[in-house]
Write a structure and sequence with these properties.
The chain has 299 residues and is α+β, with helices and mostly antiparallel strands. The chain is built from 6 helices and 17 strands. The chain has a 7-stranded antiparallel beta sheet. Strands 3-4-5-12-10 form a 5-stranded antiparallel beta sheet, with no helix packed on it. Strands 13-14-15 form a 3-stranded antiparallel beta sheet, with helices on one face. A hairpin with a 5-residue loop joins β3 and β4. The N and C termini lie far apart (46 Å). The C terminus is likely disordered.
Length: 299
């Protein structure tokens, strides 16, 4: 009987500088010249590599789940330069084709995802597949605090309360109009605003602004490593795994700037596979999939 799939998670400012993430335990620094900050990964019923199982539920340091989520990626930090809201993208990319590994029902699943995330752009059938959304539209929760670039980042806190109102506080006529469409504690209004490309292009995140974001959902059961979507769609994820990690990236549209990465890799069998991967990371700071993910075709 095959061993239960286990998950190993890494994060870093580039695919060539990934570090092992202590899932459910503490944040991992992903700072670079483009972004200063950290990420924390929470996974319910987490099972890591043998001998490195970790905590099955989040500790107080990384916080608890919201709204029935079973996993989440929490981001806290700041961009070092001004960023147009339409330019900051978040999502998945792969360095090799996955079209031959996609399960029957993928088209239906993508239709559901587009309902949940209307601003999503994707081509999962490409030679280098990708699925990316504007970060401020796709995140479940986003909070912003205006600050100078020289202001030290606050101590890590796992809480993300939705509040982007500070982005519209400069008193300009344009921002006064946009501010009327959002309010503190109303993520649905924030998503509606940033699903509109015209309005996204009117919003700038000033350099130094402290941004917190939580990307989470309850569609994955990590006990069985299965994806369950409304409407009866159910996929045993391990059955369709082609060996590539699931790579999340924050970057600009063109791919000329990469802010940070989080990768989730299935490890089948013993701790040997996971430890050998960590040894490779320590040796040369790269993974087998350590290719640059620019040129993904997001216009």
């Amino acid at each position: 009987m095959p061993a239960q799939p286990r998950i190993v998670v890494h994060a870093g400012p580039s695919l060539d500088s990934l570090k092992a993430v202590k899932v459910n335990e503490e944040p991992t620094d992903v700072s670079s010249s483009e972004f200063e900050g950290a990420v924390a990964v929470r996974i319910q019923d987490y099972l890591g590599p043998e001998g490195q199982e970790g905590k099955p539920a989040p500790s107080a340091k990384v916080g608890s789940f919201k709204d029935g989520a079973t996993w989440s990626i929490v981001i806290k930090g700041r961009f070092t330069g001004d960023q147009e809201a339409d330019e900051i993208m978040w999502g998945n990319c792969w360095s090799k084709p996955i079209r031959d590994s996609l399960p029957y029902g993928t088209s239906a699943a993508l239709k559901f995802v587009h309902i949940v995330d209307p601003a999503l752009e994707q081509d999962v059938y490409a030679d280098k597949p990708w699925a990316l959304s504007p970060l401020l539209a796709t995140m479940n929760y986003v909070s912003t605090t205006l600050a100078d670039s020289k202001t030290p980042l606050p101590d890590w806190s796992p809480t993300v309360d939705d509040d982007i109102v500070p982005l519209f506080s400069d008193g300009s006529e344009r921002n006064r109009k946009l501010a009327k469409e959002v309010e503190k504690g109303a993520p649905a209004k924030r998503k509606k605003l940033f699903n509109d490309a015209t309005k996204r292009k009117q919003v700038t995140i000033p350099a130094g602004t402290i941004i917190s974001a939580d990307f989470c959902n309850g569609y994955i059961d990590f006990k069985t490593l299965s994806l369950k979507l409304p409407g009866g769609l159910h996929f045993a994820l391990a059955s369709y795994w082609d060996g590539q990690p699931v790579t999340f990236v924050a970057r600009n549209r063109s791919g000329s700037k990469e802010f940070f990465f989080v990768t989730l890799q299935i490890v089948k069998g013993s701790e040997k596979g996971a430890k050998s991967e960590d040894a490779k990371l320590e040796k040369d700071g790269s993974t087998e999939e350590g290719e640059n993910v620019d040129e993904l075709g997001v216009d």
